[in-house]
Specification:
The chain has 205 residues and is an alpha+beta fold. 41% of the residues lie in helices and 19% in strands.
Length: 205
């Protein structure tokens, strides 16, 4: 379940406690957790509602000025009518665990070996050849540069490149910004400790 940044931050500060979605079937269940730009959000309830009977208080709890504004923002109904409007309760469940991970720089030999193995596994599973070390080197050399620029430098399309960088982020090795990426403190510690070759990144135009 995707939340816009403004809504995610509202859940984090407690000003937003509900979301409304038109779905054929629920994408989440009670107890589901998902990451957002403001941390981890937990689903506390999932109920089918009549969109024409949404209370003003519920619209406000979802971040809308009025129920009419909320209804205008819902996805249009399916042609066959086989969908319903769901009222989803939300609460903040804590910081994104990747934040703590990316700042964990005390890497022992076992940690480095584990990261080596994880990155080698990603390389083996790739349809476009080994990419992990080159991508880390590229991000380190060109922090806060646009993803399309980085992708073009290594002859890749933007979206698959971004998916790969996200895999590195999940390991705590990179972090994302409004524009571009940077190697995290953990990533820098790993690059300093690993014996895997770190290629020279290409220049950007």
């Amino acid at each position: 379940m995707l939340l816009p940044p403004k809504v995610a931050h509202g859940v984090a500060d407690g000003s937003v406690t509900l979301a409304f979605r038109r779905w054929r079937r629920p994408d989440v269940g009670v107890g589901s957790e998902f990451r957002t730009v403001a941390g981890v959000v937990r689903v506390t309830s999932v109920d089918v509602v009549d969109e024409h009977a949404v209370a003003a208080a519920d619209a406000a709890a979802a971040g809308f000025a009025t129920p009419d504004e909320l209804r205008r923002r819902l996805r249009p109904p399916a042609d066959d009518g086989d969908d319903r409007v769901y009222r989803i309760g939300l609460e903040w469940a804590g910081e994104d665990p990747r934040i703590a991970l990316r700042n964990a720089t005390d890497l022992g030999p076992e940690d480095v070996v584990d990261l080596d193995r994880r990155l080698e596994r990603l390389d083996r599973a790739s349809s476009h050849g080994p990419w992990t070390m080159l991508t880390l080197a590229l991000v380190r050399a060109h922090p806060h540069r646009r993803a399309p620029d980085l992708a073009a430098a290594v002859g890749r399309e933007r979206d698959p490149f971004k998916i790969d960088v996200r895999k590195l982020k999940n390991l705590g090795l990179t972090e994302s910004f409004d524009v571009g990426y940077a190697v995290s403190p953990r990533g820098a510690a790993y690059l300093a400790a690993t014996t895997r070759p770190v290629p020279e990144p290409p220049p950007l135009g």
